[in-house]
Model the fold of this input.
Amino acid sequence: MGKVPTVSIVMPAYNEQQYIEKSLFSLLESEQRTKINYEGILVDNLSTDKTIQLAQQFKKGMNLKIVHEAKQGRGPARARGFKEAKGEIILSADSDTCFYKGWIETLVLAIKDEVVAVTTSCNIVDRSPLTNLVFNFSQPKLMFFYRLIFGHYWLSGYSFGIRKSVYEQVGGFDTLLQAHEDLDLSFRVAKLGKIKFINKPVIFSGRRFKNGLLAGFYDYIQTFIEAFILKKKNIYLDNPR
Done:
C-alpha cells in the first residue's frame, strides 16, 4: 500500500444532540478498525443544546478535537474544520450521519494517482418504507446523471475525501455560502483531477425530506439554480451545520 497518509475527519455540528452520539460512535477506532492514523475535528457552530457535552465522552475512543466557529453556516463551519486539519487527506463528515466499518480506509485508499477526491452515496432509513426505498434507489442514479451534465461527481459534505493540498490549491470552502458549499468546491476541484464516486452508502438522517421527497429535492434544485446559475450568495437550506 506504500506510505499510509495521515487523515483528518472534519464534522460540523449545530444542535445535533439527537444524532451526534451515533455518528461519533461509528468513527471510533474500535468501530473503524483501521491502522490509518486519524484525528477527528468537531466544529461547534453555536450549538445551544447538549451536542458538545455528548461529544466530549468520545475523546477517550478517538483523537477528537472540538473547536468553535462563531460565524454560523455550512461554509464557515466546514472551512474552520478544514483549516484546523493536520492530515494529508481530509474526510468530510456530517454529524447526523453514521459511517460503515472501513469507511476511512475506503475513502483514503481511493485517492491515488489522478484521483484527487472521492465521494460516496448515501441511504436513509428513518422515513416511511416507500420513501426510504425510492430515495436509496434514486440517489446514486442522480449522482451519475449529474456527472453526465457537469462532467464530474459532486463532493457530498456528508461523506467525501480530498487531498489537503488540492483543497488549499482551489481556495477551500466559500465562507459566504450557507448552502451547496460542497458543490461549489466540487466545480473547482474537478479542474485539478478526477473526483471518484464509490457507491457504498453511509446512512444520514432523512430529516432533509421531512416534508416528502419531492419537497426536499425541490429545495435542493431551487437553491442550486440560485447559487450556480443566478450566482446568489445569500441562499439558505434548512438544518444548518
In short: The chain has a mean pLDDT of 93.
